[in-house]
């Protein structure tokens, strides 16, 4: 389908001080990209793209109506999976155990805190989109949540950029950059236009989400955090349009499987090939939804397997923890006691027994402020991302 590509403009570049190579310091002009306004553009996929789009929408609807409706812990599980994979695309990977410590409020690394912030930013985007229109204020607030753990980036958090940025190339100038987004004076009108596009209800839902994401990445409105907020926008639009009500599609794992292809598809969009990017997102969504159903089946089977392994007494502290472990797969002693409603000693004994049989695993070696995680649930987070990756690469 016809879609306007970006246009380019030559702009003067003033070197920033004396840093970088001689080539950085000698750079005087750059070519910036200016994305088109899209708020009122029509889009209807046809042929193979339409079939791919329909297949993906059906897969998401089936996941939502099936396990999404009847397995409450699946919602948090998929949301965390999406956030972790989205962070990994930006080379932020603390590891699941470090992420678990952050999730339980324990002392955690900067990368783990950043991954947890991505979870909270995604929650902010998706929850708000379920109750009202997507607004620029929502995007800005979510960005502030995302960047809060980073002391150096916090000053730019929640604000569109007022400087020129670029992707790839030198750290000191846009020399050899893969993509140079629009100058800062274009950002506000382009974002207003994108917000209008994101709230339309006359477009195929998944195509709308895909296009909004590609447009967001082309605008690159923030100094940092564009990828994670841009991918969160996909989930927000799916929630806004009612395709999802509980679940979050872990699409980022499909993108993570081959980031070179992901970035190439964004370039296709920028050249005007909108169908290529819509088809790419639709295929990734189908893979993510199918693999999520497999993970949902695994999660649903875990309580019975745990109870068979432990055979806890009825109404015991062990039984109480096992009954809530899918909902709270990472917990400290205080959280466990709120579940068991027993003494400290009884709660610790239950945690010890569940650790001995391999259901729980301590996330640190310290005796104080101990945090435990359900091994099987953490393993399934890794398994889901790997399964989506295998499906994506097998195309």
From TrEMBL:
Q: Which residues form the Fido domain?
A: 134-283
Name listed for the protein in its UniProt record: Fic family protein
| Pfam annotation, one family | Fic
Q: Which species does the entry assign this protein to?
A: Gordonia prachuapensis
Please give the InterPro entries that the UniProt record associates with this protein: Fido, Fido-like_dom_sf, Fido_containing
């Amino acid at each position: 389908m016809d879609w306007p590509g970006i246009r380019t403009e030559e702009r003067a570049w003033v070197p920033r001080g004396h840093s970088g190579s001689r080539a950085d310091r000698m750079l005087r002009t750059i070519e910036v990209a200016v994305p088109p306004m899209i708020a009122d553009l029509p889009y209807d996929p046809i042929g193979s793209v339409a079939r791919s789009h329909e297949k993906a929408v059906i897969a998401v609807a089936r996941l939502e109506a099936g396990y999404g409706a009847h397995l409450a812990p699946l919602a948090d599980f998929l949301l965390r999976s999406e956030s972790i994979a989205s962070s990994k695309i930006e080379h932020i990977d603390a590891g699941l155990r470090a992420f678990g410590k952050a999730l339980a409020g324990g002392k955690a690394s900067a990368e783990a805190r950043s991954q947890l912030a991505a979870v909270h930013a995604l929650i902010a985007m998706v929850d708000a989109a379920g109750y009202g229109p997507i607004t620029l204020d929502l995007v800005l607030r979510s960005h502030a949540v995302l960047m809060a753990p980073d002391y150096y980036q916090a000053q730019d958090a929640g604000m569109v950029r007022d400087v020129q940025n670029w992707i790839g190339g030198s750290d000191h100038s846009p020399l050899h950059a893969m993509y140079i987004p629009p100058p800062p004076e274009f950002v506000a009108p382009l974002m207003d236009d994108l917000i209008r596009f994101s709230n339309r209800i006359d477009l195929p839902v998944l195509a709308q989400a895909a296009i909004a994401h590609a447009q967001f990445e082309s605008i690159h409105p923030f100094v940092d955090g564009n990828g994670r907020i841009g991918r969160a926008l996909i989930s927000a639009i799916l929630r806004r349009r009612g395709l999802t009500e509980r679940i979050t599609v872990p699409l980022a794992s499909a993108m993570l499987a081959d980031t070179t292809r992901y970035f190439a598809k964004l370039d296709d969009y920028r050249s005007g090939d909108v169908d290529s990017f819509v088809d790419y997102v639709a295929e990734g969504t189908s893979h993510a939804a199918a693999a999520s159903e497999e993970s949902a089946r695994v999660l649903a089977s875990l309580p019975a397997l745990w109870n068979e392994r432990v055979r806890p007494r009825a109404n015991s502290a062990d039984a109480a923890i096992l009954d809530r472990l899918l909902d709270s797969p990472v917990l400290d002693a205080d959280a466990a006691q709120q579940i068991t409603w027993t003494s400290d000693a009884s709660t610790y004994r239950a945690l010890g027994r569940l650790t001995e049989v391999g259901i729980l695993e301590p996330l640190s070696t310290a005796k104080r402020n101990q945090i435990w995680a359900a091994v099987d649930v953490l393993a399934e987070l890794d398994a889901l991302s790997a399964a989506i990756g295998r499906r994506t690469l097998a195309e």
